[in-house]
Amino acid sequence: MALRKAAAAGALKKHDYVVVGAGSAGCVLAHRLTKETGASVLLLEAGRSNRGQWDSWKNQIPAALTFNLANDKYNWDYHTVPQKGLDGRALHQPRGKILGGSSALNAMAYVRGHALDFERWSKEIGSDEWDYKHILPYYKKAQKHTSETGGDTTYRGTKGPLEVSRKRSDYVRPINDAFIEAGLQAGYPRAEDMNGYQQEGFGEMDMTVDAKGERASTAHMYLWPILKPKTEEDRKAAEKLTVLTMGQATKIIFEGDRAVGIEYEDEKGTPQQALAKEEVILSAGAVGSPQLLMTSGIGPAAHLESLGIDVRQDLPVGENLQDHLEFYIQFLAKHTSLYPYAATFGGFGELSRYLFRKPWNAVEAGLGWFILGKGMSATNHFEVGGFIRSAPGKAHPDVQYHFIPGCVVGQLDFLPEHGYQAHCGTMRPTSRGTIRLASKDPKVAPLIDPNFLATPDDIEDQRNAFRLTLEILGQKAFDDFRLKPFSPEGDMNVDDDATVDAWIRKHSHSGYHLSCTCAMGSVVDEAGRVKGVQGLRVVDASVMPSMTSGNLNAPTIMLAEKLADAIGGKSLPPQEDATWYVPKDWETKQR
Predict the structure, then answer these.
(1) Helices 132-142 and 115-125 meet at what angle, rounded to 10?
(2) Residues assigned a catalytic role
(3) Which of 427, 428, 429, 386 has the alpha carbon at shortest distance from 404?
(4) How many CA atoms lie within 13 A of 346 on its CB side?
(5) Phi, psi of 472 (to 5 degrees)
(6) What are the residue ranges of helices labelled H in 186-264?
(7) Pairwise CA distance, residues 47 & 74, whole Å
Protein backbone atom coordinates (compact mmCIF):
# COMPACT_ATOMS: atom_id res chain seq x y z
CA MET A 1 0.00 0.00 0.00
CA ALA A 2 1.21 3.48 -0.82
CA LEU A 3 -0.17 6.99 -0.96
CA ARG A 4 2.32 9.34 -2.50
CA LYS A 5 2.72 12.20 -4.93
CA ALA A 6 3.36 11.19 -8.51
CA ALA A 7 6.65 13.14 -8.52
CA ALA A 8 8.04 10.65 -6.03
CA ALA A 9 6.66 7.57 -7.75
CA GLY A 10 9.75 6.47 -9.65
CA ALA A 11 9.53 3.22 -11.59
CA LEU A 12 6.24 1.41 -11.07
CA LYS A 13 5.49 -2.25 -11.34
CA LYS A 14 2.62 -3.35 -13.52
CA HIS A 15 -0.73 -3.42 -11.77
CA ASP A 16 -3.74 -5.48 -12.73
CA TYR A 17 -5.78 -2.31 -13.14
CA VAL A 18 -4.87 1.32 -13.65
CA VAL A 19 -7.76 3.58 -12.62
CA VAL A 20 -7.63 7.21 -13.74
CA GLY A 21 -9.43 9.50 -11.31
CA ALA A 22 -9.87 8.97 -7.56
CA GLY A 23 -13.35 10.48 -7.50
CA SER A 24 -16.84 9.24 -6.74
CA ALA A 25 -16.40 6.16 -8.94
CA GLY A 26 -12.63 5.64 -8.80
CA CYS A 27 -12.50 5.27 -5.01
CA VAL A 28 -15.29 2.69 -5.16
CA LEU A 29 -13.40 0.69 -7.78
CA ALA A 30 -10.14 0.79 -5.82
CA HIS A 31 -11.95 -0.47 -2.72
CA ARG A 32 -13.90 -3.26 -4.38
CA LEU A 33 -11.24 -4.52 -6.78
CA THR A 34 -8.59 -4.84 -4.05
CA LYS A 35 -10.91 -6.22 -1.35
CA GLU A 36 -13.23 -8.45 -3.33
CA THR A 37 -11.12 -9.69 -6.26
CA GLY A 38 -7.63 -9.44 -4.75
CA ALA A 39 -6.47 -7.46 -7.79
CA SER A 40 -3.64 -4.94 -7.66
CA VAL A 41 -4.75 -1.40 -8.45
CA LEU A 42 -2.93 1.82 -9.25
CA LEU A 43 -5.25 4.76 -8.59
CA LEU A 44 -4.05 7.93 -10.32
CA GLU A 45 -5.41 11.32 -9.19
CA ALA A 46 -4.57 14.69 -10.74
CA GLY A 47 -5.36 16.57 -7.52
CA ARG A 48 -4.17 16.56 -3.93
CA SER A 49 -5.03 14.34 -1.00
CA ASN A 50 -8.17 15.25 0.93
CA ARG A 51 -6.22 14.87 4.19
CA GLY A 52 -3.01 16.28 5.54
CA GLN A 53 -3.41 19.79 4.08
CA TRP A 54 -3.66 22.86 6.29
CA ASP A 55 -7.14 23.48 4.88
CA SER A 56 -8.42 19.90 4.71
CA TRP A 57 -11.21 21.01 7.04
CA LYS A 58 -12.82 22.68 4.01
CA ASN A 59 -13.64 19.30 2.49
CA GLN A 60 -14.49 17.67 5.82
CA ILE A 61 -16.86 20.15 7.49
CA PRO A 62 -20.24 19.79 5.75
CA ALA A 63 -21.29 23.41 6.24
CA ALA A 64 -18.02 24.61 4.62
CA LEU A 65 -19.09 23.36 1.21
CA THR A 66 -18.96 26.76 -0.54
CA PHE A 67 -15.25 27.09 0.28
CA ASN A 68 -14.55 24.19 -2.06
CA LEU A 69 -16.59 25.57 -4.93
CA ALA A 70 -14.87 28.93 -4.84
CA ASN A 71 -11.22 27.96 -5.12
CA ASP A 72 -9.22 26.11 -7.73
CA LYS A 73 -6.85 24.35 -5.32
CA TYR A 74 -9.16 21.34 -5.17
CA ASN A 75 -11.27 22.13 -8.20
CA TRP A 76 -10.82 22.03 -11.97
CA ASP A 77 -12.82 25.27 -11.97
CA TYR A 78 -14.26 24.88 -15.46
CA HIS A 79 -16.68 27.22 -17.23
CA THR A 80 -19.07 26.50 -20.07
CA VAL A 81 -18.91 28.19 -23.42
CA PRO A 82 -21.40 31.10 -23.68
CA GLN A 83 -24.92 29.69 -23.60
CA LYS A 84 -27.26 30.91 -26.32
CA GLY A 85 -30.31 29.91 -24.27
CA LEU A 86 -29.08 31.95 -21.28
CA ASP A 87 -28.44 35.29 -22.99
CA GLY A 88 -24.86 34.36 -23.78
CA ARG A 89 -23.78 33.72 -20.18
CA ALA A 90 -20.94 31.27 -19.46
CA LEU A 91 -21.69 29.23 -16.33
CA HIS A 92 -19.30 27.99 -13.67
CA GLN A 93 -18.68 24.24 -13.60
CA PRO A 94 -16.62 23.18 -10.58
CA ARG A 95 -15.34 19.59 -10.66
CA GLY A 96 -13.38 17.83 -7.94
CA LYS A 97 -9.58 17.74 -8.27
CA ILE A 98 -8.85 15.90 -5.03
CA LEU A 99 -9.11 12.43 -3.54
CA GLY A 100 -12.86 11.87 -3.52
CA GLY A 101 -13.37 13.98 -6.64
CA SER A 102 -16.62 15.89 -6.70
CA SER A 103 -17.88 13.91 -3.69
CA ALA A 104 -15.28 15.93 -1.73
CA LEU A 105 -16.73 19.30 -2.76
CA ASN A 106 -20.38 18.74 -3.64
CA ALA A 107 -23.42 19.66 -1.55
CA MET A 108 -23.71 16.11 -0.10
CA ALA A 109 -27.33 15.60 -1.17
CA TYR A 110 -27.92 11.85 -1.39
CA VAL A 111 -30.57 11.37 -4.07
CA ARG A 112 -30.93 8.09 -5.92
CA GLY A 113 -33.38 9.16 -8.61
CA HIS A 114 -36.69 7.55 -9.44
CA ALA A 115 -37.19 3.88 -10.22
CA LEU A 116 -38.53 4.81 -13.65
CA ASP A 117 -35.19 6.42 -14.49
CA PHE A 118 -33.63 2.97 -14.44
CA GLU A 119 -36.50 1.36 -16.30
CA ARG A 120 -35.70 3.97 -18.99
CA TRP A 121 -31.97 3.22 -18.72
CA SER A 122 -32.54 -0.47 -19.43
CA LYS A 123 -34.26 0.44 -22.70
CA GLU A 124 -31.66 3.04 -23.69
CA ILE A 125 -28.80 0.62 -22.98
CA GLY A 126 -30.62 -2.40 -24.34
CA SER A 127 -30.04 -4.48 -21.22
CA ASP A 128 -32.34 -5.62 -18.42
CA GLU A 129 -29.26 -5.56 -16.15
CA TRP A 130 -29.85 -1.83 -15.61
CA ASP A 131 -33.54 -1.88 -14.69
CA TYR A 132 -34.62 -0.96 -11.16
CA LYS A 133 -34.71 -4.44 -9.67
CA HIS A 134 -31.13 -5.00 -10.85
CA ILE A 135 -29.65 -1.70 -9.65
CA LEU A 136 -31.41 -1.42 -6.26
CA PRO A 137 -29.18 -4.11 -4.67
CA TYR A 138 -26.14 -1.96 -5.52
CA TYR A 139 -27.58 1.13 -3.87
CA LYS A 140 -28.05 -1.01 -0.78
CA LYS A 141 -24.62 -2.60 -1.03
CA ALA A 142 -23.01 0.86 -1.01
CA GLN A 143 -25.11 2.38 1.76
CA LYS A 144 -24.92 2.46 5.52
CA HIS A 145 -27.92 4.54 6.55
CA THR A 146 -27.33 5.88 10.04
CA SER A 147 -30.54 7.84 10.56
CA GLU A 148 -32.32 7.30 13.86
CA THR A 149 -35.60 7.33 11.92
CA GLY A 150 -34.87 3.83 10.69
CA GLY A 151 -36.50 3.17 7.36
CA ASP A 152 -37.66 0.36 5.13
CA THR A 153 -34.75 -2.01 4.54
CA THR A 154 -36.47 -3.04 1.32
CA TYR A 155 -34.81 0.10 0.00
CA ARG A 156 -32.15 1.15 2.50
CA GLY A 157 -28.77 -0.41 3.03
CA THR A 158 -27.27 -0.70 6.52
CA LYS A 159 -23.87 -2.38 6.09
CA GLY A 160 -22.15 -0.60 3.20
CA PRO A 161 -19.15 1.75 3.31
CA LEU A 162 -21.07 4.93 2.41
CA GLU A 163 -22.62 6.57 5.47
CA VAL A 164 -25.89 8.35 4.75
CA SER A 165 -27.78 10.28 7.39
CA ARG A 166 -30.41 12.86 8.16
CA LYS A 167 -29.45 15.91 10.18
CA ARG A 168 -31.77 18.51 11.69
CA SER A 169 -30.51 21.83 13.09
CA ASP A 170 -32.69 22.97 15.96
CA TYR A 171 -32.02 26.66 15.25
CA VAL A 172 -33.59 26.54 11.76
CA ARG A 173 -35.93 23.58 12.28
CA PRO A 174 -39.07 25.77 12.42
CA ILE A 175 -38.51 27.31 8.99
CA ASN A 176 -37.44 23.99 7.48
CA ASP A 177 -40.62 22.42 8.82
CA ALA A 178 -42.57 25.31 7.30
CA PHE A 179 -41.32 24.31 3.85
CA ILE A 180 -42.59 20.76 4.27
CA GLU A 181 -45.91 22.04 5.58
CA ALA A 182 -46.20 24.50 2.68
CA GLY A 183 -45.85 21.63 0.24
CA LEU A 184 -48.63 19.74 2.00
CA GLN A 185 -50.84 22.85 2.07
CA ALA A 186 -50.33 23.21 -1.68
CA GLY A 187 -51.76 19.74 -2.18
CA TYR A 188 -48.64 17.58 -2.49
CA PRO A 189 -48.04 14.39 -0.48
CA ARG A 190 -45.59 13.80 2.35
CA ALA A 191 -42.56 11.76 1.27
CA GLU A 192 -41.20 9.75 4.20
CA ASP A 193 -38.23 8.47 2.22
CA MET A 194 -37.49 10.12 -1.13
CA ASN A 195 -35.00 7.35 -1.87
CA GLY A 196 -37.46 4.60 -1.12
CA TYR A 197 -40.86 3.61 -2.45
CA GLN A 198 -42.14 7.15 -3.03
CA GLN A 199 -39.98 9.99 -4.28
CA GLU A 200 -42.86 12.38 -4.93
CA GLY A 201 -43.71 14.84 -2.15
CA PHE A 202 -42.04 16.89 0.59
CA GLY A 203 -39.93 15.73 3.50
CA GLU A 204 -36.51 15.32 5.03
CA MET A 205 -33.52 14.76 2.77
CA ASP A 206 -30.69 12.27 3.08
CA MET A 207 -27.11 13.54 3.02
CA THR A 208 -23.66 11.98 2.76
CA VAL A 209 -22.54 13.05 6.22
CA ASP A 210 -21.25 10.41 8.61
CA ALA A 211 -22.22 9.75 12.22
CA LYS A 212 -19.33 11.94 13.43
CA GLY A 213 -20.53 14.92 11.40
CA GLU A 214 -17.90 14.66 8.64
CA ARG A 215 -18.50 14.80 4.90
CA ALA A 216 -18.83 11.21 3.70
CA SER A 217 -16.86 11.52 0.46
CA THR A 218 -15.88 8.34 -1.33
CA ALA A 219 -12.28 9.00 -0.30
CA HIS A 220 -13.32 9.11 3.36
CA MET A 221 -15.66 6.11 3.17
CA TYR A 222 -14.03 3.81 0.59
CA LEU A 223 -10.37 4.77 0.24
CA TRP A 224 -9.05 5.73 3.68
CA PRO A 225 -10.18 2.53 5.44
CA ILE A 226 -7.69 0.79 3.12
CA LEU A 227 -5.01 3.47 3.26
CA LYS A 228 -5.19 3.36 7.08
CA PRO A 229 -6.30 -0.24 7.65
CA LYS A 230 -7.67 -1.43 10.96
CA THR A 231 -8.83 -4.93 9.99
CA GLU A 232 -6.97 -7.87 8.48
CA GLU A 233 -9.19 -7.72 5.41
CA ASP A 234 -8.31 -4.07 4.85
CA ARG A 235 -4.60 -4.75 5.46
CA LYS A 236 -4.63 -7.40 2.72
CA ALA A 237 -6.36 -4.94 0.37
CA ALA A 238 -3.82 -2.25 1.28
CA GLU A 239 -1.00 -4.45 -0.01
CA LYS A 240 -2.68 -4.38 -3.42
CA LEU A 241 -3.33 -0.63 -3.66
CA THR A 242 -1.09 2.22 -4.81
CA VAL A 243 -2.54 5.75 -4.87
CA LEU A 244 -0.68 8.50 -6.70
CA THR A 245 -1.76 12.12 -6.32
CA MET A 246 -0.72 15.15 -8.40
CA GLY A 247 -0.43 13.02 -11.54
CA GLN A 248 -2.41 14.17 -14.58
CA ALA A 249 -3.18 11.55 -17.21
CA THR A 250 -2.30 12.74 -20.72
CA LYS A 251 -2.81 9.76 -23.01
CA ILE A 252 -3.91 6.13 -23.13
CA ILE A 253 -1.13 3.75 -24.19
CA PHE A 254 -2.11 1.13 -26.77
CA GLU A 255 -0.46 -1.97 -28.15
CA GLY A 256 -2.43 -2.72 -31.28
CA ASP A 257 -6.08 -2.30 -30.35
CA ARG A 258 -5.51 -3.02 -26.66
CA ALA A 259 -5.10 -0.38 -23.95
CA VAL A 260 -2.10 -1.32 -21.82
CA GLY A 261 -1.44 1.76 -19.72
CA ILE A 262 -1.55 5.49 -19.15
CA GLU A 263 0.90 8.26 -19.83
CA TYR A 264 0.80 10.96 -17.17
CA GLU A 265 2.76 13.94 -15.95
CA ASP A 266 3.91 14.07 -12.36
CA GLU A 267 3.88 17.15 -10.15
CA LYS A 268 7.06 18.46 -11.80
CA GLY A 269 5.69 17.98 -15.32
CA THR A 270 7.88 14.95 -15.98
CA PRO A 271 6.30 12.31 -18.28
CA GLN A 272 5.64 8.95 -16.59
CA GLN A 273 3.89 5.71 -17.47
CA ALA A 274 1.63 3.36 -15.55
CA LEU A 275 1.02 -0.06 -17.12
CA ALA A 276 -1.91 -2.44 -16.62
CA LYS A 277 -1.98 -6.22 -16.92
CA GLU A 278 -5.76 -6.43 -17.25
CA GLU A 279 -7.48 -3.11 -17.95
CA VAL A 280 -7.22 0.63 -17.98
CA ILE A 281 -10.30 2.18 -16.37
CA LEU A 282 -11.22 5.83 -16.84
CA SER A 283 -13.06 7.36 -13.89
CA ALA A 284 -12.15 10.98 -14.58
CA GLY A 285 -15.74 12.19 -14.82
CA ALA A 286 -18.04 13.50 -17.51
CA VAL A 287 -15.43 16.06 -18.62
CA GLY A 288 -12.14 14.28 -17.96
CA SER A 289 -12.98 10.85 -19.37
CA PRO A 290 -14.19 12.01 -22.79
CA GLN A 291 -11.28 14.45 -23.00
CA LEU A 292 -8.74 11.67 -22.38
CA LEU A 293 -10.47 9.36 -24.87
CA MET A 294 -10.45 12.04 -27.56
CA THR A 295 -6.83 13.12 -27.04
CA SER A 296 -6.00 9.40 -27.37
CA GLY A 297 -7.80 9.08 -30.70
CA ILE A 298 -11.20 7.74 -29.64
CA GLY A 299 -14.07 10.05 -30.52
CA PRO A 300 -15.89 11.75 -33.41
CA ALA A 301 -13.57 11.30 -36.38
CA ALA A 302 -14.20 14.67 -38.01
CA HIS A 303 -13.57 16.54 -34.75
CA LEU A 304 -10.35 14.67 -34.01
CA GLU A 305 -9.06 15.09 -37.54
CA SER A 306 -9.71 18.84 -37.36
CA LEU A 307 -7.19 18.98 -34.50
CA GLY A 308 -4.64 16.73 -36.14
CA ILE A 309 -5.34 13.74 -33.87
CA ASP A 310 -5.01 10.29 -35.45
CA VAL A 311 -8.35 8.50 -35.21
CA ARG A 312 -8.18 5.11 -33.51
CA GLN A 313 -11.92 4.59 -33.12
CA ASP A 314 -14.80 6.72 -34.43
CA LEU A 315 -17.30 6.92 -31.55
CA PRO A 316 -19.73 9.64 -30.33
CA VAL A 317 -17.53 10.54 -27.36
CA GLY A 318 -18.49 13.91 -25.85
CA GLU A 319 -21.97 13.82 -27.40
CA ASN A 320 -25.17 13.59 -25.35
CA LEU A 321 -23.89 15.98 -22.63
CA GLN A 322 -26.60 16.60 -20.04
CA ASP A 323 -26.84 18.83 -16.97
CA HIS A 324 -29.52 20.16 -14.65
CA LEU A 325 -30.42 23.84 -14.86
CA GLU A 326 -31.63 25.47 -11.64
CA PHE A 327 -32.70 28.77 -10.12
CA TYR A 328 -33.46 30.23 -6.70
CA ILE A 329 -36.81 31.68 -5.62
CA GLN A 330 -35.91 33.86 -2.62
CA PHE A 331 -37.74 35.74 0.13
CA LEU A 332 -36.48 37.96 2.89
CA ALA A 333 -37.59 36.73 6.32
CA LYS A 334 -38.63 38.35 9.57
CA HIS A 335 -36.45 35.96 11.57
CA THR A 336 -34.85 32.48 11.68
CA SER A 337 -32.24 31.76 9.00
CA LEU A 338 -28.59 30.87 8.55
CA TYR A 339 -27.59 34.52 8.15
CA PRO A 340 -26.22 34.92 11.73
CA TYR A 341 -23.88 31.97 11.12
CA ALA A 342 -22.99 32.22 7.43
CA ALA A 343 -22.96 35.84 6.21
CA THR A 344 -19.56 37.45 5.61
CA PHE A 345 -18.20 40.85 4.60
CA GLY A 346 -17.52 41.12 0.87
CA GLY A 347 -15.00 43.16 -1.07
CA PHE A 348 -11.81 41.58 0.28
CA GLY A 349 -11.22 38.84 -2.27
CA GLU A 350 -10.49 35.36 -0.93
CA LEU A 351 -10.17 36.82 2.57
CA SER A 352 -13.88 37.71 2.52
CA ARG A 353 -14.79 34.06 3.03
CA TYR A 354 -13.32 34.24 6.54
CA LEU A 355 -14.70 37.67 7.54
CA PHE A 356 -17.91 36.59 9.25
CA ARG A 357 -20.33 39.34 10.21
CA LYS A 358 -21.07 37.56 13.47
CA PRO A 359 -17.75 35.80 14.15
CA TRP A 360 -18.81 34.55 17.58
CA ASN A 361 -21.46 32.38 15.92
CA ALA A 362 -18.94 31.05 13.41
CA VAL A 363 -16.52 30.20 16.23
CA GLU A 364 -19.28 28.43 18.15
CA ALA A 365 -20.26 26.40 15.08
CA GLY A 366 -16.64 25.55 14.26
CA LEU A 367 -15.76 24.47 17.77
CA GLY A 368 -18.91 22.37 17.97
CA TRP A 369 -17.72 20.48 14.91
CA PHE A 370 -14.05 20.14 15.83
CA ILE A 371 -14.76 19.02 19.42
CA LEU A 372 -18.02 17.09 19.15
CA GLY A 373 -18.74 16.60 15.44
CA LYS A 374 -22.11 18.23 16.00
CA GLY A 375 -23.93 21.52 15.68
CA MET A 376 -24.47 23.99 12.86
CA SER A 377 -21.33 22.91 10.99
CA ALA A 378 -22.19 19.18 10.99
CA THR A 379 -24.89 19.44 8.30
CA ASN A 380 -25.04 20.54 4.67
CA HIS A 381 -28.22 22.53 5.52
CA PHE A 382 -30.12 20.87 2.68
CA GLU A 383 -32.16 19.21 5.38
CA VAL A 384 -35.57 19.28 3.68
CA GLY A 385 -36.70 19.24 0.09
CA GLY A 386 -39.30 18.02 -2.33
CA PHE A 387 -40.12 16.45 -5.67
CA ILE A 388 -43.14 17.35 -7.77
CA ARG A 389 -44.46 16.90 -11.29
CA SER A 390 -44.63 20.10 -13.34
CA ALA A 391 -47.69 19.14 -15.41
CA PRO A 392 -50.20 16.38 -16.07
CA GLY A 393 -48.87 13.59 -18.25
CA LYS A 394 -45.65 13.11 -16.30
CA ALA A 395 -45.57 9.78 -14.53
CA HIS A 396 -42.94 10.77 -11.98
CA PRO A 397 -41.47 14.00 -10.58
CA ASP A 398 -39.51 16.22 -12.95
CA VAL A 399 -38.93 19.12 -10.52
CA GLN A 400 -36.67 18.99 -7.47
CA TYR A 401 -36.40 21.34 -4.47
CA HIS A 402 -33.58 21.89 -2.04
CA PHE A 403 -34.78 24.29 0.62
CA ILE A 404 -32.19 26.54 2.26
CA PRO A 405 -32.97 28.75 5.29
CA GLY A 406 -30.96 31.63 3.85
CA CYS A 407 -30.53 33.63 0.64
CA VAL A 408 -27.45 32.74 -1.37
CA VAL A 409 -26.11 35.35 -3.78
CA GLY A 410 -24.04 34.19 -6.74
CA GLN A 411 -24.20 30.56 -5.53
CA LEU A 412 -21.52 31.13 -2.87
CA ASP A 413 -22.28 34.03 -0.50
CA PHE A 414 -25.08 34.49 1.99
CA LEU A 415 -27.14 37.66 1.99
CA PRO A 416 -26.44 39.54 5.27
CA GLU A 417 -30.05 39.43 6.46
CA HIS A 418 -32.66 36.84 7.24
CA GLY A 419 -34.11 35.01 4.26
CA TYR A 420 -34.93 31.67 2.69
CA GLN A 421 -34.99 30.12 -0.75
CA ALA A 422 -36.25 27.20 -2.74
CA HIS A 423 -33.49 25.91 -4.96
CA CYS A 424 -35.52 24.66 -7.90
CA GLY A 425 -34.67 22.78 -11.07
CA THR A 426 -36.22 20.55 -13.69
CA MET A 427 -34.68 17.10 -13.80
CA ARG A 428 -35.16 15.58 -17.25
CA PRO A 429 -34.28 18.25 -19.81
CA THR A 430 -34.46 17.37 -23.50
CA SER A 431 -31.59 19.67 -24.52
CA ARG A 432 -28.35 17.91 -25.37
CA GLY A 433 -24.87 19.38 -25.48
CA THR A 434 -21.27 18.40 -26.16
CA ILE A 435 -17.76 18.18 -24.76
CA ARG A 436 -15.25 19.15 -27.46
CA LEU A 437 -11.49 19.54 -27.37
CA ALA A 438 -10.14 23.07 -27.52
CA SER A 439 -6.70 21.66 -28.30
CA LYS A 440 -4.91 18.36 -28.77
CA ASP A 441 -2.98 19.32 -25.62
CA PRO A 442 -4.64 17.27 -22.81
CA LYS A 443 -3.81 19.98 -20.26
CA VAL A 444 -5.97 22.59 -22.02
CA ALA A 445 -9.53 22.72 -20.65
CA PRO A 446 -12.08 21.35 -23.12
CA LEU A 447 -15.09 23.20 -24.48
CA ILE A 448 -18.12 22.44 -22.31
CA ASP A 449 -21.44 23.23 -24.00
CA PRO A 450 -24.53 21.95 -22.14
CA ASN A 451 -26.72 23.77 -24.68
CA PHE A 452 -29.21 24.81 -21.99
CA LEU A 453 -32.83 25.64 -22.88
CA ALA A 454 -32.42 24.63 -26.51
CA THR A 455 -35.90 23.07 -26.78
CA PRO A 456 -39.41 24.48 -26.28
CA ASP A 457 -40.18 21.68 -23.82
CA ASP A 458 -37.31 22.71 -21.53
CA ILE A 459 -38.40 26.35 -21.57
CA GLU A 460 -42.00 25.41 -20.75
CA ASP A 461 -41.00 23.03 -17.95
CA GLN A 462 -38.81 25.68 -16.30
CA ARG A 463 -41.62 28.24 -16.57
CA ASN A 464 -44.08 25.83 -14.96
CA ALA A 465 -41.61 25.06 -12.19
CA PHE A 466 -41.12 28.78 -11.54
CA ARG A 467 -44.84 29.41 -11.02
CA LEU A 468 -45.43 26.27 -8.98
CA THR A 469 -42.59 27.29 -6.67
CA LEU A 470 -44.11 30.71 -6.05
CA GLU A 471 -47.39 29.00 -5.20
CA ILE A 472 -45.70 26.74 -2.64
CA LEU A 473 -43.76 29.57 -0.98
CA GLY A 474 -46.97 31.60 -0.83
CA GLN A 475 -48.72 29.12 1.48
CA LYS A 476 -49.82 30.00 5.03
CA ALA A 477 -47.02 27.93 6.54
CA PHE A 478 -44.63 30.80 5.73
CA ASP A 479 -46.82 33.65 7.03
CA ASP A 480 -44.86 33.89 10.29
CA PHE A 481 -41.53 34.08 8.41
CA ARG A 482 -42.24 35.89 5.13
CA LEU A 483 -41.12 39.52 4.97
CA LYS A 484 -41.11 40.26 1.23
CA PRO A 485 -39.95 38.80 -2.09
CA PHE A 486 -36.26 39.21 -2.88
CA SER A 487 -35.79 37.40 -6.18
CA PRO A 488 -37.84 37.73 -8.26
CA GLU A 489 -38.89 41.13 -6.96
CA GLY A 490 -42.49 41.61 -5.92
CA ASP A 491 -43.45 43.84 -8.83
CA MET A 492 -42.45 41.35 -11.52
CA ASN A 493 -45.33 40.23 -13.76
CA VAL A 494 -45.12 36.50 -13.12
CA ASP A 495 -48.17 35.83 -15.29
CA ASP A 496 -46.43 36.97 -18.47
CA ASP A 497 -44.56 34.11 -20.17
CA ALA A 498 -41.97 36.31 -21.84
CA THR A 499 -41.15 38.04 -18.55
CA VAL A 500 -40.76 34.74 -16.70
CA ASP A 501 -38.65 33.24 -19.49
CA ALA A 502 -36.35 36.29 -19.48
CA TRP A 503 -35.92 36.04 -15.69
CA ILE A 504 -35.03 32.35 -15.95
CA ARG A 505 -32.47 33.01 -18.69
CA LYS A 506 -30.84 35.69 -16.52
CA HIS A 507 -30.87 33.94 -13.15
CA SER A 508 -30.46 30.20 -13.82
CA HIS A 509 -27.25 28.33 -13.09
CA SER A 510 -25.87 24.83 -13.47
CA GLY A 511 -26.69 22.13 -10.96
CA TYR A 512 -23.12 20.85 -11.52
CA HIS A 513 -24.46 17.53 -12.81
CA LEU A 514 -22.49 17.08 -16.05
CA SER A 515 -23.01 13.53 -17.32
CA CYS A 516 -23.74 11.13 -20.18
CA THR A 517 -20.77 11.94 -22.46
CA CYS A 518 -19.55 8.32 -22.84
CA ALA A 519 -22.99 6.76 -22.69
CA MET A 520 -23.67 3.08 -22.27
CA GLY A 521 -25.18 1.82 -25.49
CA SER A 522 -23.26 4.21 -27.77
CA VAL A 523 -19.68 4.70 -26.54
CA VAL A 524 -19.41 1.83 -24.04
CA ASP A 525 -21.36 -1.37 -23.62
CA GLU A 526 -23.52 -2.33 -20.63
CA ALA A 527 -20.37 -3.26 -18.68
CA GLY A 528 -18.54 0.01 -19.41
CA ARG A 529 -16.19 -1.47 -22.04
CA VAL A 530 -15.22 1.00 -24.76
CA LYS A 531 -16.47 -0.23 -28.11
CA GLY A 532 -13.96 -1.22 -30.76
CA VAL A 533 -10.93 -1.59 -28.47
CA GLN A 534 -9.76 -4.02 -25.82
CA GLY A 535 -8.73 -3.55 -22.20
CA LEU A 536 -10.38 -0.16 -21.76
CA ARG A 537 -13.38 0.71 -19.64
CA VAL A 538 -15.12 3.89 -18.47
CA VAL A 539 -16.77 3.93 -15.03
CA ASP A 540 -18.18 7.28 -13.91
CA ALA A 541 -21.15 9.61 -14.54
CA SER A 542 -20.21 9.89 -18.21
CA VAL A 543 -21.56 6.37 -18.90
CA MET A 544 -25.09 7.25 -17.84
CA PRO A 545 -27.31 7.09 -20.94
CA SER A 546 -29.48 9.86 -19.48
CA MET A 547 -29.64 11.79 -16.22
CA THR A 548 -31.49 10.46 -13.25
CA SER A 549 -34.15 12.58 -11.54
CA GLY A 550 -32.09 14.33 -8.87
CA ASN A 551 -28.49 14.80 -7.77
CA LEU A 552 -26.02 12.45 -9.46
CA ASN A 553 -23.50 11.45 -6.79
CA ALA A 554 -25.52 8.53 -5.40
CA PRO A 555 -26.23 7.06 -8.88
CA THR A 556 -22.54 7.41 -9.78
CA ILE A 557 -21.51 5.45 -6.69
CA MET A 558 -24.17 2.84 -7.44
CA LEU A 559 -23.02 2.30 -11.01
CA ALA A 560 -19.40 2.05 -9.85
CA GLU A 561 -20.45 -0.68 -7.40
CA LYS A 562 -22.28 -2.51 -10.16
CA LEU A 563 -19.47 -2.20 -12.71
CA ALA A 564 -16.88 -3.26 -10.11
CA ASP A 565 -18.81 -6.51 -9.88
CA ALA A 566 -18.95 -6.73 -13.67
CA ILE A 567 -15.16 -6.35 -13.82
CA GLY A 568 -14.89 -9.16 -11.27
CA GLY A 569 -17.21 -11.36 -13.33
CA LYS A 570 -20.12 -11.44 -10.89
CA SER A 571 -23.39 -9.68 -10.08
CA LEU A 572 -25.89 -9.45 -7.25
CA PRO A 573 -29.26 -11.12 -7.83
CA PRO A 574 -32.12 -8.75 -8.76
CA GLN A 575 -34.49 -7.62 -6.02
CA GLU A 576 -37.77 -9.00 -7.29
CA ASP A 577 -39.92 -7.21 -4.68
CA ALA A 578 -38.74 -3.74 -5.79
CA THR A 579 -41.77 -1.54 -6.47
CA TRP A 580 -42.38 2.18 -6.74
CA TYR A 581 -45.08 4.81 -6.49
CA VAL A 582 -46.80 6.34 -9.50
CA PRO A 583 -49.99 8.40 -8.96
CA LYS A 584 -53.06 6.70 -10.43
CA ASP A 585 -54.24 9.92 -12.08
CA TRP A 586 -50.84 11.16 -13.36
CA GLU A 587 -52.06 11.38 -16.94
CA THR A 588 -54.75 13.96 -16.12
CA LYS A 589 -53.59 15.71 -12.93
CA GLN A 590 -50.45 17.62 -11.93
CA ARG A 591 -50.96 16.74 -8.23
Answers:
(1) 120
(2) 513
(3) 386
(4) 8
(5) -65, -45
(6) 218, 224-227, 232-238
(7) 7
